[in-house]
Structure formats: C-alpha cells, structure tokens
Specification:
There is one protein chain. A hairpin with a 2-residue loop joins strand 2 and strand 3. The protein has a single domain, classed as Alpha-Beta Complex (Spore Coat Polysaccharide Biosynthesis Protein SpsA, Chain A), CATH 3.90.550.10. The C terminus is likely disordered. The protein is built from 6 helices and 9 strands, in the order βββαββαβαββααβα. 28% of the residues lie in helices and 16% in strands. With 228 residues, it is an alpha/beta fold. 43% of the residues are buried. The strands form 2 sheets. The protein has a 7-stranded mixed sheet with strand order 5-4-1-6-8-7-9, with helices on both faces. Strands 2-3 form a two-stranded antiparallel sheet. Helix 2 packs antiparallel against helix 4. Belongs to the MobA family. Monomer. It is found in: Cytoplasm.
Length: 228
C-alpha cells in the first residue's frame, strides 16, 4: 500500500502523489517500484479519488477523520486487505515520496518476518535510521488501532511500532539512500537530476536485486507472495 495522505505543506500543499518527477507523477514511480513486489496494490489518500483514476488503484480514505497520519492510512489498508479474496495476512506500506525504493524491499521484509515469528512488523532501515513507514505488517486488531486514533492515544508511528516487537532490516544507502523522502521542491530537483544522470549512464538509482538501472525509477523483482 502506498501512503499518500499527507498535506505536502513543504511543497505548498496539494497532492504530493501527483507532483511531476522526470515527466511522470511521483505516484507512478512508486507504484512501478512496489507493484511487482506485491499481490495487490492500493493507495491511501484523503483527497478526491477521481484525481487518481488514471492509476487504476483502489483509493482508501482514512477510517478516522482529521488527517491523522500514517497509522490512519495503515488502518484503512488493514480493512481493505482483510476484504480481499483470499484475505491477506500481511500489508506492506511505503511513502509516496520515496521513488527510489529497493526492488527487493518486500521480499527482504517478508524473509525477516518469517525468521522472527514473534515479530508483528518488519521495518526498513538505512544509514543508521529506521524508516517506520517502509514496513511489512502482520494484520492486527483494526478496531483497537482505530480506537486509539479516535481517542488520541495513538499518534507517533514509531512508538506504536515499538510495541509490536519489530524486526529491523537494514538496506545499503550507497550510492544513494533508497528511502530518501522528497519533501521540498529542492528535493524533487535533486531526484530529477539523479534520474537524468542514470539515464545518461551515471549513478545507479538505488539498491535492489542487481538489475541494470533505467531512466525510470522502476524495476523488476520476484514477488514475495502474500504481502500487500
């Protein structure tokens, strides 16, 4: 699931998912990265779903009003995933402003979860930083999550994850950090320069399964199975 429910204040507001990067919306880059890794893909967003119709994705609104952040998007994803046929056991989440995601992200997170049956979530890390939005979750108690969001007891993503016995999976951050967030116009400009350089035979776009870099930030990888 791609989380795109933020307000993009540092970009002047609006739908960050639709901001252009190298001639394509940010959402297109991230969807290209994530789609080959999962069984089904959805978008968590609170604006008009018609704005995303061209992408052909289910658009999930938060089940709790107030733009409460990634945990509200995760709750929407759990509800959606439980209604699939067959229901999903796992939900992967990534941010819409991370177009250089590893092509083996979900596979490595799933491997870590399988090796740690007590863990309820596997979380990506790079360059000494944990990235709580880049994660693979075992579906938990949706009602409890929604209740915590509604009464204000749940707000901080990492604090909540710490209570789910997380396993941390480290990814290389060279030649670039694959979890770099694009929060400003300057970030977008740097990312576009990186894509253009890769198209011209310069630096690779990110870490993955070793396939050649392309001008698009997308790539291919093996599906890990039941992650969503």
């Amino acid at each position: 699931m791609i989380l795109a429910g933020g307000l993009a204040r540092r970009m002047g507001g609006g739908d960050k998912a639709l901001r252009p990067l190298a001639g394509r919306p940010l959402l297109a880059h991230v969807a290209d990265r994530l789609a080959p890794q999962v069984r089904a893909l959805a978008l968590s967003a609170n604006s008009d779903p018609a704005r995303f119709a061209a992408f052909g994705l289910p658009v999930l609104a938060d089940p709790v009003a107030g733009a409460l952040g990634p945990l509200a998007g995760l709750a929407a994803g759990w509800i959606w995933a439980a209604g699939l046929a067959p229901p999903a056991a796992l939900v992967a989440t990534v941010a819409v402003d991370t177009p250089f995601l590893p092509e083996d992200l979900v596979a490595r997170l799933a491997q870590a979860l399988a090796a740690a049956p007590e863990a309820e979530v596997a979380v990506a890390a790079s360059a000494g930083r944990v990235h709580p939005v880049a994660a693979l979750h075992r579906i938990g108690d949706v009602a409890a999550l929604v209740a915590g969001l509604s009464d204000g007891s749940l707000r901080r993503v990492m604090s909540w994850i710490d209570g789910r016995r997380p396993v941390i999976v480290d990814f290389p951050a060279l030649p670039c950090d694959p979890f770099e967030n694009l929060n400003t116009e300057a970030d977008l400009a740097r990312a576009e320069a990186r894509i253009r350089a890769a198209a011209d035979g310069g630096l690779p776009l990110g870490q993955g399964n070793g396939s050649p870099s392309e001008a698009r930030t997308s790539g291919t990888c093996q599906s890990p199975g039941d992650g969503l």
